[in-house]
Design goal:
single chain, alpha/beta, Rossmann fold, L-fucose Isomerase, Chain A, domain 3, 2 domains, 15 helices
Length: 457
């Protein structure tokens, strides 16, 4: 599950409702409130807004003032005792992002109904749904809902962050790859993100103007990675590494200066023609550092990678779906997988730096991805004037053949891969998908619900 305690603001908004008028077991209400706050602190969060039970509109506004001041990324609503459904609208007027409804259990040893917490959250869920306000739902005692709560926090805070994020594209999509074209207004409408188009000539000038001293400083970091040149037992020469250091520095500084959370780069034909070098090793390094950077001007790919980082799974590997049979899929791209998804340096299948398979220019990362663990395939794309999303799970198995660049063979439980592929391409699936280590399909399906994306299983 996503480790939301590391991915979001440590300040966590929590409203715990009490009651002005008599009713239900208020001793149990107090016990639940104490248990909830202790549990949240154990997870590494600082609960904001829960200093006192919320009883009315005035209390809601006071608590939300403190939550907004603390810049909380997520807001949890708890009813240890059934409260007024009207309060759901009061909160929705102030908090425009998805809520988390956490229903707590009844007192187990009492012969009377102690809280009706689940009933109260059912009421609020119905109200929010009819008001077209997305939410996540968690049910259980503190301590029993760790994974579900962390996932809900990660998902709702990701949606909130998206609406304040910015993605950049240098150039446009690669020639002919029209399926990667993006609509800035649909991106804004669906995710709340801002799309910033950047000049390819200005980026080229930036790469040329990187100071030699900065390149040498970065080369010292590259040498520490211990990568060898493909087909040799020697380290790549600086003449091979220096252009990629210039790419790496340029993209890093561009993202910082423009305030970009994600970047799509048109990697060809200009860059390898002008610099006699591909930027793939630089992108591999940036991705391993947790930055969402895509190739071929794939804006939606960069957007999806950024979402993946917000959910705690890292940016993933943007790849082609190269071939398949009934039960397996072979994924491949020409050498820009995150280094942390490749095998370790010094192992039998270690990553090396070589030349592009098509044009024989450096520097691409050669080497298969790690095998033996769970894998999720995902993609977010635009079709029919709306956004779609898919995610499905499998297992990374040893490859049947070796190819240059980066590749992974995935076994899909239940097979029927050709049928899945045909279903997805009829829904407009682009030729890029993203691979993530671990099983995340449920998180993606919940994200689809929060953002009103068309889900494809």
């Amino acid at each position: 599950m996503p480790d939301a305690s590391q991915q979001v603001n440590k300040n966590l908004g929590i409203l715990i409702f009490g009651r002005k008028r008599p009713g239900f077991d208020q001793e149990w209400n107090s016990m639940i409130r104490t248990q909830v706050l202790d549990f949240v602190r154990q997870l590494g969060f600082n609960p904001v807004g829960a200093a006192a039970p919320v009883l009315d509109d005035e209390g809601i506004h006071a608590a939300l003032d403190s939550i907004e001041q603390a810049k909380c990324d997520a807001l949890i609503i708890i009813q240890p005792s059934l409260t007024d459904g009207q309060f759901a609208f009061t909160i929705s007027q102030r908090w425009q992002d998805p809520l988390i409804l956490w229903a707590t259990p009844e007192r187990p040893t009492d012969g009377k109904v102690s809280s009706c917490s689940l009933v109260g959250q059912n009421l609020w869920a119905s109200l929010l749904r009819q008001a077209h306000r997305p939410f996540e739902f968690v049910y259980g005692a503190p301590g029993a809902v760790r994974d579900e709560l962390l996932r809900a926090i990660a998902l709702t805070s990701a949606v909130r962050k998206l609406r304040r994020s910015k993605i950049g594209v240098v150039g446009t999509h690669a020639p002919g790859f029209i399926d990667l074209a993006a609509d800035p207004f649909l991106i804004r409408k669906t995710f709340g993100m801002q799309l910033h188009s950047l000049s390819m000539p200005q980026f080229i000038d930036r790469v040329h103007q990187v100071p030699d001293a900065a390149v040498q400083k970065d080369l010292a970091k590259v040498h520490k990675l211990g990568l060898l040149q493909t087909g040799t037992k020697s380290a790549p020469p600086d003449e091979m590494l220096a252009p990629d250091s210039r790419f790496y520095i340029s993209m890093t500084e561009l993202m910082q200066e423009a305030g970009l959370d994600a970047l799509a780069l048109q990697c060809w034909p200009e860059l390898p023609n002008i610099f006699k070098q591909w930027p793939y090793f630089a992108i591999s390094r940036l991705s391993a550092e947790g930055r969402a950077v895509s190739v071929e001007g794939d804006i939606d790919g960069a957007l999806a990678s950024y979402i993946s980082t917000l959910l705690g799974m890292g940016p993933g590997f943007l790849t082609d779906w190269l071939e398949h049979d009934e039960e397996t899929i072979f994924f491949w791209h020409p050498g820009m997988a995150p280094l942390d998804m490749c095998n370790g340096v010094g192992t039998e299948c270690e990553p090396t730096l070589g030349e592009h398979f098509n044009g024989a220019r450096p520097s691409v990362v050669d080497g298969p991805l790690q095998t033996g663990g769970p894998v999720t395939v995902s993609r977010i794309w635009r079709c029919d004037d709306r956004y779609h999303i898919t995610a499905f799970e499998g297992h990374a198995i040893p490859p049947r053949r070796n190819v240059s660049g980066n590749s992974l063979l995935m076994e899909v439980p239940g097979g029927k891969v050709p049928q899945r592929f045909e279903k997805l391409i009829h829904a407009g699936l682009p030729h890029h998908v993203i691979l993530h280590f671990g099983h995340w399909a449920d998180s993606f399906e919940r994200l689809a619900r929060l953002l009103s994306l068309e889900w494809h299983s």
